[in-house]
Design goal:
Blueprint (H helix, E strand, L loop, with lengths): L4 E4 L11 E4 L11 E13 L2 E12 L5 E8 L5 E9 L2 E9 H13 L4 E5 L5 E9 L4 E11 L2 E2 L2 E6 L11 E11 L4 E4 L3 E7 L5 E7 L4 E8 L6 E9 L12 E7 L7 H15 L6 E7 L3 E3 L9 H8 L9 H11 L7 E7 L7 H12 L3 E7 L5 H9 L5 E4 L5 H12 L2 E9 L4 E6 L6 E2 L4 E8 L2 E11 L2 E11 L8 H21 L3 H14 L6 E6 L6 E3 L2 E2 L5 E4 L7 E5 L5 E3 L1 E3 L4 E5 L9 E10 L5 E10 L6 E5 L3 E3 L3 E8 L3 H11 L4 H5 L5 E8 L5 E4 L9 E6 L7 E11 L4 E11 L8
Length: about 775
Amino acid sequence: MRWFLLLVLTLLPAFANAGIVLSDDNPDLPGRTPLTLVSQQVDVNIVDQVATTTLVQVFRNDGSVATAGTYVLPLSEQASVMEYSFWLDGRRVRSTIQGKDDAEKTVEQAEAAGEEASSLAWNDPDSFTARFTTLDVGETRRFEVVYSELLPYEAGTVRYSHPLDYATMGLPPVEDVRIDVTVVDSKPISSMAPTSMRLTDTVPDQDFQFDYQLESTDFGLSFRTFRKAGEQGFFVATVAPREQTTDDQIVRKDVAFVFDVSGSMSGIKIAQARSALKACLNLMNPGDGAYVVAFNDGLSPYKNKVGPVDAGAHAFVDGLAAGGGTEIQNAMLSTLDVFKASERPTAIVFLTDGNGRLPVEDTLRKVHDAAGPTRIFSFGVGSSVNQAFLERLAHENRGSYTAINGSVAIDDAVREFYASISQPVLTDLEFDFGDVVANRAYPAVMPDVYKGQRLVITGRYRGVGEQTLTVTGRIGGEERNLELPIDFTAEDTEHPWVARMWAKRRSDHLLADIRMYGETPEAKDEIIALSSNYQFATPYTSLVAHADPRVASLTPARIKPGDPVLAIPAPSDSVAVTAFLPFGEVKDLVYDTDAELWVTRFLVPRSAVDGVYWIHIVATDRTGRSEFFKLAYTVDTLAPVMQVALDDDVVAVGGSIDITARPVIGFLELGTEMVRALGRDAAARAKAFVDVKTVVARLAGTDLEVPLRSSVGGAPGWHGSIDLPLSTPAGTYSLEITATDVAGNKHTVTTDVYVERTAVVGVL
């Protein structure tokens, strides 16, 4: 049964479940699909708070008819899919990266050729779907996804979550669910939740959640590297201040809240904006300074200077109403002018749902010139804002941009964000690598680290040798430093995820530049190269899983004892392709550049009993990943027994000997084979009697020889004629019919034919 997968990222309902199937008949009600989740295996490997998850799910069609539908897998926004696979005839078909156009062609051509393929296209970071056509009754489908993510961290607690609440979707019981977690962290782990879970024949009703707690230090540092010989290295550094921070370690700051109250903010928007602003004021630390200004086509500040939050500020916010136009430049410049007198860290929280009337480039330039050390955090409400402008406004002034769409309340988004930055602890971070040179680090500008949070930095480095990594920062106004000895070796390949994390950060940085400043050929080409080299999907690339139309083969597959050829379509740059043979022998295959296949010969012992045998093959690529093949061959020493029939065993010269040959399958022979095979290989072994490759008829004592043919839809057996020349002497001849099977076994049947001199002549 041919099946075809088309995998696309799309906007879907917000399913909170890992891997569900939506039936074509009931696209919104997965609980009514006849597909049963047979098993789900989740293997999680966490290293320094970076989790790599391998999810394997097997579905079975338990309905009464063949079913088509869609496989849906939601992911967190932080997750990055690095591999997708499906399984075909017992082997894993793994994805590779292709450009989007090439990926679409690959899938289209595969579909037209009746081959299996699927394509993962980056469209939305929250979910992807796998479209499958027909799944027969009783047939299973196996999906495998590998993804990585930087786990949430708060006050020393690292949390991994895997969606598993199938009860709310009304899904049937799952036969087997297994989750296994391993953790390695540079900081000491003080406590940890159970690292495994097993469920059998049940419907999970809550997500799997795994936490572990790191021990508190003044400010902790973890550092991992990855490097291939002869290349620049990669590093990931994680910095976190003490989780139990005292009040005097919180950095006091001045914060301006610049909120849009133009006419387009009327209704629910202005109500939520008021709620958000009051929530931020409530989160201010004692000693912080606040400046509140509402703007439309004019300015309405609470006070003309920075000051403590008081009851009057809340009353002012309660009185804000929507109306007028949107004048962004004046609001920002006047606020920055107020900050000129501040001697403390300063920040602006800016919210709008519209566009300023003045040119964008002019506003960005003037704001940047005036901002100095002030960080700007911008919020864009709805779809009518100029996202590129607001993102640049934040990016160029050491802040961040948050988009607020219709599914998220303004007050929730702003309150949650401000809570995360309300208590800066570690500021003015600097890294000193000694004689090793770091470059292209992200984030490009070091942000402050806030209470209960951590900062993750990725980058490249040049140089080798034992160095002292020194990290300097300020906690509560006091300078602190942390020294860590690092051996930057010429080769360090233990943690390949380090290189991939940097590549993803670099790609995200380039994509942000494209959003803000427009696409350039250089940026696009680099994103494609990063995606291809480090295996992750981007707007320009797709993950394509395509079953190689050249299947693993054995020539011949039905053999006598001897030395057949084994051929495997593994990539040419594979590190090794190894075959594990049924008689205990292990063979390394060699790449044949002409055939573009890995090949070898192996010996089938003469003592091998007729039957079906399996070969297992492992192909390992240069990244260390393995692909598995499995194929069977049949040892066949039984020649096909033929029964020969002639239209007439007396033929005149000038006439034809008409021959029909059929295989003989007696009850005795078939029964014997069934018993020998114990029911398992009976069909394959009985096939030895009928697996005829060629049948040739030859008249002994002459050079007359013809092949017999079988025809589809015609009379059963093999048929042919030997034409007798007029010069053929009369007499009795031996007619030999030789049948050869695909294993090379031969059997010859002999019968007599009498040739008489009466010639066949035409009638005028």
